[in-house]
Amino acid sequence: MARRRTPRAATVGVAEHGNSAVLVTVGIGGELLDRRRIDLTDGLPTHPHHHEGSWAVGRYLKSPWARAISLTDAVALVERVRESAACGARESLEALAAAVPVPIARIAIRVCPELPPTTEERIADNRAQTVADSVMYREALATAGEARGWSVYWYDRERVFRDAATVLGREDIDAILHAMGRSIGPPWQARHKLAAAAALAATGRRAPTAG
Predict the structure, then answer these.
(1) Which of 141, 194, 201, 203 is the 20 to 30 Å CA partner of 168?
(2) Distances (CA, A) of 37 to 51, 74, 77, 172, 188
(3) 3-state secondary structure at position 96
């Protein structure tokens, strides 16, 4: 009886920074298929929880860039940025899927810390407001990926390089990352290596739950 072939499927690794992210896509064999930088929003404040939200509750008012804003307006701004990020994530992943020559099955995104449930609570909580914007962008990418039928692999930044090495049966992945960088040329920076490691780790793991 003929053995059924497993379809080739790619994995996207994400290294986010503010409202932008580096995406590195690898094939089932670990080959580099695509590298790109995306912006999830355009023309809107990039850190509405941390900046405008903080100003609304009286934080950082002595900063030269601070301005007066009500909590109601700050919350409304967060929602505008969230909607824009959702649209940007959908469009960016659609463009990536069209460019990569094989189907994409997974997306690896840095695990999100647990945060208060509402925007008002996230703004009021001093710890939460420092990470809420980054979480918002990561969640936008996760939602857009799931809408495309991709599974989401939540990775731990402190462990992902070791996890990728374990998946590949190696002591480390330094040589693999170096070869990837040489194959595609600059830029090949820390964020690119992180995204690549996340993609490699996700190729051999079932997606765990966030939190």
Answers:
(1) 141
(2) 24, 28, 25, 26, 12
(3) helix
Q: How far is CA 35 from CA 19, 66, 77, 90, 171, in A?
A: 17, 36, 31, 17, 25
Domains defined along the chain, listed by start: 10-203 (3.30.420.10)
Residue type for 157, please?
R
CA distances from 114 to 15, 36, 148 (A): 19, 29, 25
More reliable by pLDDT, 1 or 87:
87
Backbone angles phi, psi at 196, to 5 degrees: -65, -45
Rounded to whole angstroms, the Cα distance separating 120 from 60 reads 17
Task: Match 């997306």 to its residue by tokens.
Answer: 107
What tens digit of pLDDT does each residue of 160-187 get? 999 999 999 999 999 999 999 999 999 9
Rounded Cα distance, 15 and 198, in Å? 8
